[in-house]
Amino acid sequence: MRDCLLPGLLALLALVPNGSLLAQPLPGTRSLEWPEQDLSQRMMDAAHRWIEARIDQSPHTRERAWSFPGGNRKSWLQQKRDRLKRMLGVVENRLPARLEWYGSPNQPATVFDGPEFQVLQVRWHTVGGPDGTPLSAEGLYVRQKSPPTGQIVLLPDAAQTPEQLLGLADTALTRPVGLEFARRGYEMLIPTLVSRADLVTEDPRVRRSGQTRREWIYRQAFQMGRHIIGYEIQSVLSAIDIFQQVDSGKKVGVAGYGEGGMLALFAAAIDPRIGATLVSGYFADRQEAWAEPISRNLFGRLNEFGDAEIAALVHPRRLVLESSKAPTFQNSKGAIPKPNPEQTTREYRRIFDQLERTGQQVSPAQWKILFLPGKTQPGTPQPPSPENEPPGITAEPFSRHASQYFLQAFETQTPPAEAAGAITDHRREFSPADREARLLLGMERHTQALIRASSRVRENRFLYQAMPELAQSRWSTQKKLPTHSSEKFITAAKKFRQEFHESLMGKFSEPYRPTAARTRKLKETSKWIAYDVVLDVYGDLFAWGVLLVPRDLKQGEQRPVVVCQHGRNGLPRDTIDQDKPAYNNFAAQLANEGWITFSPHNLYRGEDRYRWLDRKANTLGKTLFSLIIAQHDQITRWLASLPFVDENRIAFYGLSYGGETAVRVPAVVERYALSICSGDFNQWTRKVAATDQPFSFMGTIEWEMPYWNLGQTFDYAEMAYLMIPRPFMVERGHLDRVGEDAWVAHEYAKVRWLYAQLGMADRTRIEFFQGGHSIHGKGTFEFLREQLNWPPREKAKKIPD
Q1: Angstrom distance (rounded) from CA 367 to CA 385
Q2: Given CA atoms 126, 128, 129, 135 in this order, what sign does their dihedral have?
Q3: In 3D, which of 568, 564, 577, 536 has the Cα closest to residue 42?
Q4: What is the SS3 assignment for 94-139?
Q5: What are phi and psi of 31, to 5 degrees?
Q6: pLDDT tens digit string along 66-96?
Q7: pLDDT of 384 above 50
């Protein structure tokens, strides 16, 4: 194809001064028939279909993941628990168990003191932070005055307070089940959860972002490999530590509703110390987990853990799954789904399927899981059959049937009827809002401390692990040090490139389709001809861009290509002929100088469809860039096949979201021989997750920007390291509000330092210019000429600066 395409192209170029051949395809390709104005929407629709098809296949993926391979079953199940813990962000070691009750004259520590039990307002440390500040939980402690019947961590929904579960405040969603448990002799800790209410802030930018309090913590924590769910689970596990400190032999129960039910299920799955669990208003089919509140987003969940698989990790301990009315919540970023009896029944059946795959025998004597419909009397639970499958939804969370079956794990005989009457709160100035604000601030402080410490974490896990002698160079007192082996670093970086692609950005295992290039002539000038190009990638997902071919190509000549990438909500022609000041038609400018250029379309267009695409992809351990990387891999493969392209000199140059692409895609796609990041290079971790900076995404609508655990693994310096030995440049306008010069320079200095240590200082550069968020096209154009050694010296004087 390379041999036959160029003569046809040169003949075509000679014929077209009058535009008579517009809509003709590039020689050697098929004709493109799709309308230009339809291509962006068509690509987005295809991307959604591709991801949704993978989600539809995820139950089969989970079946394969849960086929026990043999060996030590206990160890294999523990590996499952460990992976689930990492997915939830439950990664820190907990602090020693210590319960504190606190108060003041108008807010005494003793909330209620009765003849049988006390209620105390308490706090307890959960995990320590990198700055030494512990993260604390707060809530209520029910302390029995006689030896307790059992010990329970009782978890409200996010729309409830601990007081409501004890009848100390007007109840919401459920009856005061905590009071019933207290009167039956149970010692309890009832933690406070972060609510789903709107975030209260004086910052108008943050208000406009429309975040809930749970989303506020989710966004910053997700970037750091932590999660609001994980923080709250740590409070549950620390509560169990407190109970077990007194008597480690006692069985501990966990019960929760709504968000609390979710925490109860996760906690029971990862901590075998929990002997009995009641989950109300949560267990369901999670195939549409991407549509739930964003604070529930778990990266890669559907590959291994639907609710059935999580429930299977509780076996053989007692688990009551109560199908009840779910809490009500909906905003622009997700909603709590309404119970669907048919789907929930199907998920319930899958528990038994997965237990069978793990080789665990289920019999009435050992089986402790029960899906409890509202009118079924508790009894000996059985494996599923038409007689005991759940027929419907109970109206009331924590129904008496469900509670009774849960408590049977602790009680050998039916207790006497509970005494009637309410209890009263002795506190006169108690504010649940103040308590929640302390909880919220504690989680934020912990996450921000992780952000401040993350630079050293990343250096130690990548730079100094890949090449330990670099640490000696950095802190050496010698005046002159030798350069280090670039080959050694390049070899060591391969595993980090693989990790970045597969674990951070996400990589599909499916092979690409043949490119099957379809093209049509789009425009011509005296300098170049433009072609729309469409290439197949996966299924009906395609790549699309505009190719500019200079008219002065000679027979047998091969020239470099500059891939010119638009930013958010852009289109390929924005870089060519739309006269937008951000882009300054830079693809056309380069083509005027004789460069071949290709302007791809990236998927970040159409608020909020690309964000929902990213959410869907997250459930599979994938991101928006899982698709974009694949598209660019296919684009560069096709460009390299063209006879007039020098396959060793394909460069990338992108602005804004295209600049974000410039550090993610060339880090993986090694056919890119050079990359220029314009209007985006930054301290990305702080850009995404810092709460004290005015340019942070924490104050914008870009809720897709956090990438799971990226802050602890790869910032922009580390992504640039993956491009070594290829040239890399940053273009930065002093007035660009995406960041600050000092922060950009600080992050870039790490890149410059490493290139210098490897003897490659001439292969990297930064240009500051007096301007804003735009392509400057001066130092970057010169960098392209210098690093790609084009045009030849005899032509250089003819090219305007």
Answers
A1: 14
A2: positive
A3: 536
A4: ECCCCEEECCECCECCEEEECCCEEEEEEEEEEEECCCCCEEEEEE
A5: -80, 135
A6: 999 999 999 999 999 999 999 999 999 999 9
A7: no
